Amino acid sequence: MRILIVEDDQKIASFVKHGLRAAGFAVDHADNGEDGLHLAMTESYDTSVIDIMLPKLDGWSLIETLREKKINTPVIILSAKRSVDDRVKGLQTGGDYYLTKPFAFSELLACVQALIRRANGESEPTRLTVGPLSMNLLTREVFRADRKIDLQPREFALLEYLIRNSGKVVSKTMIMEHVWDYNFDPQTNVVEARMCRLRDKIDRGFTKKLIHTIRGVGYVIK
Amino acid sequence: MRILIVEDDQKIASFVKHGLRAAGFAVDHADNGEDGLHLAMTESYDTSVIDIMLPKLDGWSLIETLREKKINTPVIILSAKRSVDDRVKGLQTGGDYYLTKPFAFSELLACVQALIRRANGESEPTRLTVGPLSMNLLTREVFRADRKIDLQPREFALLEYLIRNSGKVVSKTMIMEHVWDYNFDPQTNVVEARMCRLRDKIDRGFTKKLIHTIRGVGYVIK
DNA sequence: GAAGAACATTATTCAACGATAACATCATCA
DNA sequence: TGATGATGTTATCGTTGAATAATGTTCTTC
User: Fold this and answer.
1) What's the pLDDT band for B34 if we cut at 50, 70, 90?
2) Interface membership of B204 toward A (CB under 8 Å)
3) Is A219 helix (H, G, I), strand (E, B) or coil?
4) Contact between chains at B84 and A106 (C-beta distance less than 8 A)
5) How much is the average pLDDT of A177-197?
6) For residues A159 and A142, what is the distance between their CA atoms, to the nearest angstrom?
7) Residue A139: its pLDDT value, please?
8) Do B114 and A96 touch (CB under 8 A)?
9) Are residues B116 and B132 in the same domain?
10) DSSP label at B124?
C-alpha cells in the first residue's frame, strides 16, 4: 500500500511519514506542489495526504489538476484553515476527507485506512475469519473453533479467496482466475475436485456447513 | 440519488431532510437504530447519514451490522462526541466520514456529494429493490420484507430482469431473449411456467402482489 | 353467455451439474 | 533414484433444476 504525502512543513511531514511507515505503508514525500503533482501523476498511490498551503503550486490547484487528468487517488486534505467554507471547498474540489491542523495521528491513520478500505473492498489483515473459522495468513494456520486444520497450498489459497469474498457468491471462473491464474476454461473440474477436499477438511463432521454451493453460479462461504 | 438519515433529534433530522431534498436528493428518515437498519437493509441508498446516540440500536452497532451484511452504502457519521477516540472508532467501524455536531449543512452536503462522486466511478449497483422486495446480486439473497426467499438460478435471473425493468411492461419475447437467450419462439410455455414458480415464492401469502400480468402484452413488477 | 384464446398450475421427465473417489502425474528432497 | 506429498485428471453416480406437456382457470369478444 503506497501513500503520497505533500507537505512543506518538515516536522509534520516527518511525523506523518514515520507513523505511516510504522503502520506498514510505503510512503513517498514531496515538499512542494509541483513535485507532488509530478509524483501523483507518474506513480500510483492508494491514498494521498495533501496540504493546502504549499510552495510553487497550492493544494487546491494540485487536486483540481489531478481530477482533471482523471487520476482518482483518494485525497485527504490536511489544512490549517478550519472555516466551513474551506472545508466545503476542499470536498468540492475533489478531496475525500478534510482534516484540520493540529490533528491526531491516529485519526489520520483511521482516515487512510477507511479510504483504502472503500477503494479496494477491505484492508489487508493478517487474519481472516468467518464464523468459527479463522486463518492466519502469516503463519498459514487454519482453525475451525479450536481444531487445527492442515491445508495444502492450493486449498489454502482457495479458502483465502472464499473468505476474502465471504458472503458473496464467487463463480468458478472467478476462482480459476484468482486461485489458479487460468484465463481460459481448462475443460476439467479442478475447482470442484479441490473444493471437495477443502470441504472434507473444513465441514466434515460439523452440522453447520460453511461452504455452500450455488448451483449454476458458484460457491459461497458464510 | 437516495439518502438515508438515521437521527432521533427531530429538529436536526428535519433540517437535514429539507436541505438535502432542496439539493435534489430523495431522502428517507428513521428516528431509531432498528428502523434505520431495516431501511438500510431492504432499500438501496447512495449514501447514509447516521447519528451515534440512537434509541433501540446505537449507531456503532448499526454500521457494524451493515458492513457484516456486505451492505457497502457510504456512511457519514453525525455525532456529538468530538474526541479523537470516537472519530477513530467511527472510521474503523466502517464509517466513511465523521462530522461533529454542531455542523454546517453546507459541509454535510459537500460530504454527501464527495462520497457519491467517489462511489459513482465504480461498479453498477449490487442491490436491486422494488417496494418491499430486495435482491442482493453479490450474495444472491432475495428478501421480501424480512423474509428470505430461495430462488433457483433461472428464477433469480427472471426476477432480476423484471426488477431492472420495474414499472415497465416486458413482453414474453423480451424475457425469452434476455433470460433464456432464445431468439426464436420455442413453442412452449417456459416463461409462463417459470413465472408461476416465481410468483409462488414471491407473492404467495401476501395481499399486495408485486408481479402483474398484462394480458396480451407481458408482465410487470411494481 | 358460449367459445376460444391467453394465461396459470401442476406432475413428469430428463439432462446438466456437481460431488466424490480412485487414479495419474509431477515435483521435491533425502 | 525412489519415496512422499501435492496436485491434476478421469469416471461414475446422485441430485436438482428446468423444460415439457397436460390440465385447469380466467378473460375477452361476439
Assistant:
1) very high
2) no
3) strand
4) yes
5) 86
6) 10
7) 87
8) yes
9) no
10) P
Range of the domain at B115: 2-120
Spatial distance between the Cα atoms of B141 and B150, rounded to a whole number of angstroms: 7
- Cβ-Cβ contacts under 8 Å for A23 (sequence gap 6 or more): A109
Place of cell 448499526: B62
**Tell me: the pLDDT tens digits for B43-60?**
889 999 999 999 999 999
Cell of A221: 462461504
Same domain, A144 and A95: no
A54 and A94 in a common domain: yes
Q: What is the pLDDT of residue B124?
A: 64
Residue of A nearest to B109 (CA): A88
Number of structural domains chain B divides into: 2
Q: Cell 462526541 sits at which residue?
A: B81
Neighbours of A180 (CB within 10 A): 15
Instruction: Find the angle CA(A196)-CA(A198)-CA(A199) to the nearest 5 degrees.
Output: 65
**pLDDT tens-digit map of A38-56:** 999 998 899 999 999 998 8
In this prediction the pTM is 0.76
For residues A82 and A178, membership in a common domain is answered with no
Mean pLDDT of A148-159: 91
So what's the pLDDT on residue A122? 52
Return positions of chain D under 7 A from a protein CB: 5-11, 16-22, 27-28
Q: How far apart are CA B158 and CA B217, in angstroms?
A: 17
pLDDT of residue B123: 56
- Work out the average pLDDT over A174-188: 83
Exposure pattern of B138-174 as b/e (b: 16+ CB <10 Å)?
bbbbbbbeeeebebeeebbbbbbbbbebbeeebebeb
Contact B110 A88 (CB under 8 A): yes
Pairing of strands B26-30, A75-79: unpaired
Q: Between chains, do B74 and A118 touch, taking CB under 8 Å as contact?
A: yes
Within 13 Å, how many C-alpha atoms sit on residue A128's CB side?
Answer: 21
CA-based nearest residue in chain B for residue A74: B118
What's residue B99's pLDDT?
Answer: 93
Judged by a CB distance cut-off of 8 A, whether residue A71 touches chain B is no
Residues B138 and B194 reside in one and the same domain: yes
Among the partner residues B88, B110, B140, nearest to A106 by beta-carbon distance: B88
Q: Can you read off the three cell numbers belonging to residue A59?
A: 493544494
* Helix, strand counts (H, E) of chain A: 8, 12
